[in-house]
Amino acid sequence: MVVLALAGLVLAQSALLINGAGATFPYPIYSKWFDEYHKANGTQINYQSVGSGAGIKQVTEGTVDFGATDGPMNDDQIKAYRAKNSAGILHFPTVLGAVVPTYNVPGVTSALNFTPEALSGIFLGRVSKWNDPAIANANKGVNLPGNDIVVIHRSDGSGTTYIWTDYLSKVNSDWQEKVSKGTSVNWPVGLGGKGNEGVTGLIKQTPNSIGYVELIYAAQNKVPYGAVKNSAGSFVKADLASVTEAAAGAVKTIPEDFRVSITNSPGKNAYPISSFTWLLIPEKFKDTAKRDAMKGFLKWALTDGQGAVENLSYAKLPKEVVDKELKAINKIQ
Amino acid sequence: MASSTINVPNASPVVGSRSFLSRLRNGDEIARVITFLFAASVVLITLLLIFELWTGSALPRHKFGLHFFFTKVWDPIAEQFGALPFIYGTLITAGVALILAVPLGIGAAIFLAELAPQKLSDPLQFFIDLLAAVPSVIYGLLGVFIVIPIMRQFIQPALKNSLGFLPLFQGPAYGVGFLTAGVVLAIMVIPYIISVSREVLMSVPRDQREAALALGSTRWESTWKVVVPFAKTGIMGSIFLALARALGETMAVTMVIGNTPTISSSLFSPGYSIAAVIANEFTEATGDMYLQALIELGLVLFLLTFILNGLARLLMLLTTERGSGMGQV
User: Fold this and answer.
1) What is d(CA A246, CA A271) in angstroms, rounded to the nearest whole number?
2) Contacts of B172 in chain A (CB under 8 A)
3) Cβ of B280 under 8 Å from any chain A Cβ?
4) How far apart are alpha carbons A151 and A16 in whole angstroms?
């Protein structure tokens, strides 16, 4: 690395190294972006997918130049950042992801419909049979068995759990009170599987089970998943368009700092369990070369970079959000 | 130590300082200092570890005190942390593992060391050593794809039908849980028990066997009543090694235990172990209290290992005293 950096200094002033760390969910698209941007501009960006929590911690402590997270930093974390770095930190949404309910019910082959009441009831342990009216009423014509439901959740702390519990908190006040949202929560019922692959593996092996995985994981591994009723009252199956629509539905209410949850977003075809994933960029850079490179990369990722997004099953940002972000880049000093 | 007692008579006709120099030239002093440092580093690392775990867990230690050991709630959002379900899960899975692995392992070791012909014993030993070197994630995959389905479809229903009146074998059979984790751990620790026990049994002096045979005992009597008691200390050592591995195993356990902090008398119930929860939650632990509670769990695991090892050593002291006559004959 040192040799490369020295050689870079001699050859061209643009060979710059920027370090980042954080969320695992956007890692595939980030590594593709960083690679393409390096080829095009010579700026080298290293990214370690160590998890959102660790990303927030590392950028706060200044061990990396930028962070990345699947759940926005909360007010305490922002305060802690400000206290430590005497400047703020900016959130930039980069792509969109979604979390889908997946299940294994013997005899059921069609995609099931889930209402918010059914999902929160199942995960609270109140809806405990597959033929419970909460599920059956939304699935007329499907022969649901009277077996006990086995709930499966993530055991490792993860952004996927954050998005899932954020949604459940919005649609069910009991959930909000008793469990709330976070990367790990105190689950009322269920078994834990490690990672998307652990959850999928348990569901495949356990009859009458239900769990949740990332849309990308489900799409790439052909895991069947159900549709969820959105706030407009229609059952929507997650796909790239319905996820982008969820973000578009939230555009009007998006705050200046982009810290917004778009779960249960309005919009006729919006998929309700969608979320941004964010880059965390310091407001102030000591090194002006790094600052300019970071700004350059952000501009590129929000414009040209969005073209590469859908090949990797991420949903694109809506145009309105991109326009807002391009303005916000000027806040970086 | 031994080197100095040997050196003294050799060095006695020479003046003191020269003796030191000559010893230095011979390398004895250097070897002694260096090996002492190596030995001391083990103690140093252990102390450092305790120090780090202790200082790193100050927040939850002050907030929860001893309640940390006795409360069941693990809620990262409300910042309520109790270690009891994890301690329970760790002990139960290690216990199940030892109950299954000890008779199997010692039986196999006796066969390999005493009864099997050399031609069979050596290749088998090779396979056992190979098993001991398999990474734990591979055992985890074995657990997920083979042990869990077998447990759910065959073993758990069979246990329920035959021994279902016991609280140990009640409740729904998910496949994952304490029992499955114990079985996978048993598979993992058996090679350790066999390998070490066989080595110990083979080092029992030939005279012992011949004396027993000369007194008219059968082959099995000489093995069971003379050779095995002679090797008891070593066999116990192999069991401690197995216990230590079972307590600290992380990857394989988290893949099959169900990762739910519950305390249940049923072995079918999903559970959680200390090592598994640390591995699962450490990377995404935000907030000092949460992170430090995980570190305190590490401290608890350390304590647990320490206490169990101490008890085992005590047990060994008590039993060897009683059987020492046999060993010294």
Assistant:
1) 6
2) 148, 150
3) yes
4) 48
Strand partners, A211: A102
Cβ–Cβ under 8 Å, residues A282 and A249: no
Write the pLDDT tens digit of every residue in B184-200. 999 999 999 999 999 99
**How much of chain B, in percent, has pLDDT values that exceed 70?**
91
User: Which tens digits make up the pLDDT trace of A51-60?
Assistant: 888 899 899 9
Residue B23 in tokens: 């010893």
CA gap A266, A272 in Å, rounded:
8
Closest Cα to residue B83, out of B62, B94, B59, B67?
Answer: B67
Assessment of whether the complete model's pTM goes beyond 0.95: no
Cβ contact (<8 Å) for A191 and B259?
Answer: yes
* Chain A residues in contact with B144 (beta carbon < 8 A): 201, 205
Q: For B108-159, what is each residue's pLDDT tens digit?
A: 999 999 999 989 999 999 999 999 899 999 999 999 999 999 999 999 999 9
For residue A101, the SS3 value is strand
Closest CB to B76 among A54, A158, A185: A185
| Cβ neighbours of B95 (radius 10 Å) | 15
Best mutation site among B150, B152, B286 for testing chain A: the one with the most A CBs within 10 Å?
B286
Residue A96 has φ and ψ, to the nearest 5°, of -120, 145
CB A29 within 8 A of CB A77: no
A220 and A93 in contact (C-beta within 8 Å)?
A: no
Residues of chain A with Cβ-Cβ distance to B175 below 8 Å are: 205-206
Dist CA B210 CA B199 (whole Å): 19
Distance from CA of A256 to the nearest CA of B (A): 24
Contact indicator for B296, B57 with CB cutoff of 8 Å = yes
Which of A155, A162, A166 is the best substitution to test chain B (most B C-beta atoms within 10 A)?
A: A155
Set of chain A residues whose Cβ sits within 8 Å of the Cβ of B284: 51-54, 156-158, 183-184
Burial of B35 from C-beta contacts in 10 A (0-12 / 13-18 / 19+): exposed
Partners of A53 on chain B (C-beta within 8 Å) are 283-286
Residues whose CB falls within 8 Å of the CB of residue B232, separated by 6 or more in sequence, listed in order: B319, B320, B323, B327
Distance from CA of B152 to the nearest CA of A (A): 9
pLDDT at B325: 41
Distances (CA, A) of B15 to A10, B10, B18, B19: 65, 11, 6, 6
Interchain CB contact of A55 with B (< 8 Å): no
Rounded to whole angstroms, the Cα distance separating A223 from A240 reads: 16
- ipTM over cut 0.95: no
Specify whether the CB–CB gap between B42 and B50 falls below 8 A.
Answer: no
Question: Which 10-39 residues of chain A touch chain B by CB within 8 A?
Answer: none
**A15 Cα to chain B: minimum distance (Å):** 31
Q: How far apart are CA A308 and CA A293, in angstroms?
A: 20
B67-328 is classed CATH 3.50.50.60: no
* Residues B200 and B208 sit within 8 Å (Cβ to Cβ): no
Q: Measured between CB atoms, does A156 come within 8 Å of chain B?
A: yes
- B259/A192 CB distance under 8 A: yes
- One-letter identity of residue A51: G
Cβ of residue A158 closer than 8 Å to a chain B Cβ: yes
CB contact under 8 A, A157 and B258: no
**SS3 of residue B147 by DSSP:** helix
